[in-house]
Design brief:
heterodimer, A: about 250 residues, mainly alpha, globular, B: about 90 residues, 3 helices, about 80% helix
């Protein structure tokens, strides 16, 4: 009976992640790992690895739609992805080599940085139109976005979208769709390293994947009439709190 | 983007659906008999779905004469495979 209860617990957490992440307009990785570690008591490396595999599932679902609608800038995605994938593999290898308690602290710092980026983005107006430029800078910054993805088990959209939109001048809708496609490839590269070393918990992957998809639909429906800017602000503050708790301040 | 991908994007969705189904069956089988091979196969399918999509994309782009996208796609694929092989060491 206990494994079934645990599985239901994971699915419910996945539904929660789906609702919140779709309301805040972000991928689930930033929320999944702290939830697994702080609430479900999972080891941080297993949480990161399982989160990356779940991200592949959620990204495949959304990027299928974006690719069909022709919103993904394939040239940009495939130009930026080699350095991003390389970064993800380097990040994953670094995390695997470190002790879990240190990874938890580094993850906490990463979460604080991500929450500050999210807070800044809440007050920044995205570019709606423009021509893609600064490719070299984009490729270099993508390496670090990939590294963050591999190290922290996140998709990295929180970094990729500002890089493509604010640094490279890609219109916001195209940047979101392109990032969504890239996230799956980056997560696949990072998760290969973790899967080879046996860090993945299959029950977490299945439970979160089954929970996130209906949760995201539910979240998108309940978003109607709510101000997404305030939701993003609250979400960034929750992440900041989780980051501080993981660092141990 | 003016590249026609046809039904190719559905490959991603069906790949992960297949992976999740095999994973679910594998978890149940492991619980009953202790055999973890099918569970591992499910995880493997999920991990390689995006990479396999790149293979299919390169093939499609080469066939359509979109050489730039095909080369970029193959480049991404090589970086992922080489880096994953290096991380095995």
């Amino acid at each position: 009976m206990e494994p079934l209860v645990r599985f239901l617990e994971v699915i419910l957490s996945g539904i929660g992640v789906g609702i919140i992440s779709s309301m805040a307009g972000i991928g689930g990785g930033t929320l999944m790992v702290p939830l697994m570690v702080l609430v479900l008591g999972v080891d941080v490396k297993v949480a990161i690895a399982s989160s990356l595999l779940t991200i592949i599932v959620t990204s495949a679902s959304s990027s299928t739609v974006y690719l069909k609608e022709g919103l993904v800038n394939l040239k940009a995605a495939l130009t930026l992805e080699p350095s991003t994938a390389l970064g993800a593999i380097v990040g994953a290898s670094i995390t695997i080599g470190l002790p879990s308690n240190l990874v938890e602290r580094i993850f906490g710092f990463g979460l604080i940085a991500i929450s500050l980026i999210m807070l800044a983005r809440t007050f920044t107006r995205p570019r709606e139109e423009g021509e893609v430029k600064h490719w070299t800078l984009g490729v270099l910054s993508s390496f670090f976005a990939g590294m963050a993805s591999g190290m922290f088990g996140i998709g990295g959209g929180v970094l990729k979208v500002p890089i493509m939109n604010l640094v490279m001048g890609m219109p916001i809708k195209e940047a979101v769709a392109t990032s969504s496609f890239m996230v799956g490839l980056t997560a696949s590269s990072g998760s290969m390293v973790y899967a080879i070393k046996g860090f993945v918990d299959p029950v977490l992957v299945l439970g979160f994947a089954l929970g996130i998809i209906p949760g995201a639909t539910l979240g998108a429906k309940s978003l109607k009439g709510m101000k997404s800017r305030y939701i993003k602000l609250i979400f960034a503050l929750v992440l900041l709190y989780a980051g501080i708790k993981l660092v141990g301040w | 983007m003016d590249v026609d991908l046809g039904n190719l994007p559905s490959f991603l969705r069906w790949g992960v659906i297949l992976g999740l189904s095999v994973l679910a069956a594998g978890i149940a089988i492991e619980h009953l008999s202790g055999n973890h091979l099918i569970r591992q196969a499910g995880l493997f399918i999920i991990v390689v779905t995006p990479v396999s999509f790149l293979v299919a994309l390169s093939y499609r782009m080469l066939a359509d004469g979109e050489y730039k996208i095909a080369v970029l796609s193959l480049l991404t694929l090589s970086v992922v495979i080489i880096s994953a092989l290096l991380s095995l060491r």
